[in-house]
Design brief:
- By secondary structure, the protein is an alpha/beta fold.
Length: about 350
């Protein structure tokens, strides 16, 4: 299946946006599909004079700022814009949908909104975290502004569903105002026990989904009690998707392995096999809980130096400072390697 496709007809055009919204394309690394601003700009340029542009969307979201950028570009185009949610429109992907004049979705398509999140790749003072907190509040207000123009809801109503991480299934999205019409047809949808949701032959990793269990119950109730797809069934009936899921899981574990020795062992094990966290989420959680081994080691060295009575010896101070810097540099190197692999 082609994940990025443009059909340019005489008066109308069709643009298929499948995959994660990202500032850069790292599909060579993890085998996933990406919606990038450059791809979008290149493909939308010859379509600006069309009477109608149909956007087929199937995305679990991604980079908020890229989503806002694409949505703003769509708003600037005079053509009638029709969005069809062919699976999921979650997080930043909802901005793209809300930038369109008409939004349709299949009866079992999903739409999700949540609070913007940030991942930290360095240490900081309280004022630094205040700045990040303020930035997230501004981002949340920007999203609410986009959503309100589409739904007609009040600020308080929109803030409530965002704060709860709310999933809308089919008609629910129309009832709330995000969508205008339900296509009375079901898409192929399966949810696996390893936090993957496969919609319309696209695998979405929902590891970071806060309300995964509620979503799982909603989908299963929709399927009238059908059991979840097993790994063996997935391998047999959808071999391409099985390989895609397998590759993503291998790369997740590979990225987590890079933090061996830097992050608390018990926490790393939980991230790999119990919580099924990404390296990015683990990093953030470890920083919040102070379980980065390098930082703890530095604190222990500081305590030892004070207790030894040699705190006035410059040579010792320089050595300990160098050791601290080595830990910071190494930790930053691992983070930068991961960050370069996937934005």
């Amino acid at each position: 299946m082609s994940f990025w496709k443009v059909q340019n007809k005489e008066e109308t055009a069709e643009l298929q946006l499948y995959g994660e919204i990202s500032n850069s394309d790292s599909s060579w690394w993890d085998g996933a599909q990406y919606i990038t601003p450059q791809k979008f700009l290149d493909d939308i340029a010859p379509l600006r004079e069309k009477e109608q542009i149909t956007i087929k969307l199937n995305s679990g979201g991604g980079d908020l700022f890229v989503g806002l950028q694409i949505a703003t570009i769509l708003k600037s185009i005079s053509a009638k814009k029709v969005c069809i949610i062919e699976g999921i429109a979650a997080s930043a992907a909802v901005l793209i949908a809300c930038a369109c004049d008409t939004v349709k979705l299949y009866s079992n398509s999903l739409l999700m909104v949540h609070k913007p999140k940030a991942t930290f790749f360095s240490t900081g003072e309280d004022s630094d975290f205040d700045k990040v907190s303020n930035m997230l509040k501004i981002c949340k207000d920007s999203c609410i502004d986009f959503y309100r123009k589409k739904t007609g809801k009040s600020y308080e109503e929109m803030a409530e569903v965002i704060d709860k991480e709310t999933w809308f299934l089919g008609q629910e999205a129309v009832d709330f105002g995000f969508c205008d019409e339900v296509i009375e047809e079901n898409l192929s949808m399966e949810i696996t026990n390893s936090h993957f949701l496969i919609v319309n032959s696209i695998a979405h990793n929902l590891t970071s989904c806060k309300n995964f269990e509620n979503l799982k119950q909603k989908i299963n109730a929709r399927k009238e009690g059908k059991s979840n797809m097993t790994i063996e069934t997935l391998k047999k009936e959808y071999p391409d998707l099985y390989n895609q899921v397998l590759l993503q899981e291998r790369n997740r574990l590979k990225e987590l392995d890079e933090f061996d020795g830097l992050i608390d062992t018990e926490m790393l094990h939980k991230a790999k096999y119990l919580a099924e966290m990404s390296a990015k989420d683990l990093c953030f959680e470890a920083m919040k809980q102070g379980k980065i081994t390098g930082v703890n080691h530095w604190n222990n060295l500081q305590d030892d130096r004070k207790n030894s009575g040699v705190h006035n010896v410059m040579g010792m101070q320089e050595k300990v400072g160098n050791q601290k810097q080595e830990h910071i540099n190494y930790f930053a190197k691992v983070l930068n390697q991961k960050r370069g692999a996937k934005s």
